[in-house]
Amino acid sequence: MNKQIIFSLAVKDLDQSKAFFSALGFGFNPEYSNEKSAFMVIVDGSVYAMLMTEPFFQSFIDKPLAQAREANEVVIGLSCESRDEVDSLIAKAVAAGGRTPHPPEDHGFMYDQGFEDLDGHLWNLVWMAPPA
What we know:
By secondary structure, this protein is α/β, with parallel strands linked by helices. 21% of the residues lie in helices and 34% in strands. It has 2 domains: 1-62, 2,3-Dihydroxybiphenyl 1,2-Dioxygenase, domain 1, CATH 3.10.180; 72-132, 2,3-Dihydroxybiphenyl 1,2-Dioxygenase, domain 1 (Roll). Strand 2 (27-29) and strand 3 form a beta hairpin.
């Protein structure tokens, strides 16, 4: 069975969030997007994010909406093919208005750094050395 991961993120300004993630190189599928949500392609065929305006996101839940700038709800991990890809995506995120909550961590076999998007959602980019 082919599995896909689709997670939803509440955003304050859909157009600004689309511009931010476009600057990182992510695309959007207009077939599943509208003025309330945008279907972001992270890994074609397997990993997607639905960026949803806060009122639209709220219509799917029966609890208060967490504000990612005030409290961490989740850290989204994304593997990268190289250290350079980690650094490149971090640089693009910062240039597009994101921030880095900590410096890169180099463990030899693993290299990672995180960024916060415009709404405070945490993303962690990781490169792992291939097995010898």
